[in-house]
Amino acid sequence: MSLRLKIPEEIYQKYSDLFGEKTINEKIISVEKLIEELAIEFSEEIRRIINKRRKWLESKEPVTSKGAFPSFDEVFEDADGNKRTFREIIQGMIDNFLGIQSDLRWRLNENVPIPKDAHPLKNPGLEITGPWYPLSRAYNQINADVASAMEDEEDASPAWYIPYGSGKTIADVWEARKNVKLFLSGKAPNPYYEKGKTYTLNKPRDKWPVVFHRLPGLHLLDFDITLDGKPVPAIIVSAVIYTLNNYNSLKNAGSGVYFYLPKTQTPEEALIVEKILRKIELKLGLKIGTLKVALLYEEVNAGRFFPVILWIFRERLIKSNNGRWDYLGSLIEMWLQEGVLPDPQNITMTSPNMMAYQKYNALMMLLAGAKNGEADAAPVGGMAAVMLYPQTDPFGRHRYNLKALRGIKLDKLRERLIGLIFVAEEKVEGKITLEDIINGKVKGKLYDMFRQSWVATKEEAYVKAGNEPLRANLEELQKMIDAPVNYIEVEGTKLPTVDSGLTPEERALFQKLGLIDERGKITPWVITKDMINTPEKLLFNKELWGGKDLWHALYDIPEGDITPEHVQHAFYMAANYGFQLLNGNLAAAIDDYELKQRFMNDLATYRIFTSWLWSIINRDASFTKDGYIKGPKLTKDGVIPAEDVLKVTKGTKVKDIFEKLWKLHFDWTYEFYKEQDMRVAKRIVETFGKANNSSIIEEVYKVVSKAYSSGPFREMSAKEAAQKLAKILNANPAEIEEELINLAPRFDRAMAPVIMEILMKQLLYPKYIMNSGKILFILSPLDPERRLKVMDSIFSFREMVEDKVRRGELNKSVLDLYDYIYDNYW
User: How far apart are CA 18 and CA 238, in angstroms?
Assistant: First the structure.
């Protein structure tokens, strides 16, 4: 190993198969040497670019100025050194779509076509996402009836850090990398046993969904691998290890190396990623464009530069995904110096700005990807993340599953209809229906763009409901809308069955969105070539973008209220996700008491809710409606904020009730754990033959609560707890110990007060932190004493931290962590 690049010996030995020399295309490439080479070349440039994000965020220029589209004369450069103006890039994309032979014309994937297995229009269906750690998750993804499987090293990654008290010595991400190689090489055990369950591969290799690898964003560092003592950009480590270890296996299976690229904001950021991928291709002797990329279009900044980003990635970009939470988080950041957004819970994918966002993505992918008049690249729909409740749920919440199944079907049907773009040969008066187009009553070309969309969970019924509208042929779409409506009553509310047609309320929404007419007939988005044949028309034609020019359609602050209930809900979600993040779990299941659903969450959850809460607290926002902050109460749906405690009137400052809200969440946490432990106590009493005696249950509860309070079993071991319970119940301690362990909570409850302290400091500290999940990555591994010192340093001014370092009160590494968290590299 080089003297400059350092990898911990334990990692290097335990995962030696991931390192060393690999032979690809008769070329011998060292994993470590390529990481080092790329880190030497690109690390400082990545730091410079990330620092520009911070400067843009803190700029006091008006949003309409700093957040505007580039001027048409602004010049951009690609990885070959070609230079074009913003106008030329857009015109070249337009010329491609219109079939105009010009020097400016360009399109996506011109030199290396989109591989058949990765083609987003030829493989309709859902795209399942998540980590491949533990290994069972890989079996779940591959076995699911999906078009694509994205194993994750970003927002839902296995942890890059080792939570304090976990007993681990290596971060989970390394085990995930081993799992990926094991699976893709065809060596995964079949059957496989994990925690008492058996997993089998139910498909031959040629029937697997295509596999994508989500890279870490440019803002993340890999603290396990250092160059000259500094952490290497995580994107470099991830891209090199994945490519060199899996290229041959993927190629032999008729597939290839395909990446999902997150958090790209600017052409500069796209260019550095393009250069990294080209360096890897050069080392492997591959044609430029062999490594394909799907873009997560999840940053509002990216929309400003979208045609340029597509142009820079034109050799390899095959699809572009819409998101919600990250996108809204970035919209909050865009307006951070000037205004605040209303409740984000109410800014759904059907809100006007989010509709414009989805349509913009679809149209840009059509123009840039068109090949011989046909769509070739495509947009990808947003996330559906409900986890269906099992029949064994202690509160019977599986009664809400129908709502979830109906929800995903409607979401994916709506996306499919948004992606229907009809380019008419001439302007047509009145609305054009899909039936008119299919029956040849109007002249033009129909493009069907949204054929893939994201899902986070594997439940068969949920996946089936989401797949149906994505995989249906065009003639079947109208039948879905017109099907008879049948209802099932759930707690006094009539819910439509999954296979029902649109209800009157659903029809009204779809009509408002312009997806159907007053008769319920599907109405594609109709455009004519002369509406988009110049850059000015594309960006500023109000007819195209629903009555506004594109910038205002995308970036105006949505209308809405700031309500006490949603502020409390936002804190609940941030605290619950942050707690799991501190425990090393980035793909976190959380019960959403408002929606009565259990959702799979990732880092985007923490981003949206902490960014919104920070903005409304630090920008002195007031509630715009009366409401209540609620205390915990045991309800039929579990312990949730349900008891009206504090009446909040319109005009009250959010920051004035924050401390009370914070304390009430602490109360909820206590009551939530109490209910869990009481349920365990009752089960143990029942299992070991005692009558349902309240005094005995209370005694058992006290022991269980102590055993589970930290670790679990840090304050009281399972053996000690079992012995105490055995005396109370006159039962076998070994059997009780086994039951205690089986029923133990998954996460260390000692992290609950930690996330509360972090949120108190983070949300009240006047300096905003982008991608603030990084704070938790840093603090999670630290012992309580050091964690407190580092936390105090993070939420103070840099000059104070520097001063403490000079005086020897803090290690220089704390200042480095400060700069990492605040993107302060220059």
Answer: 11
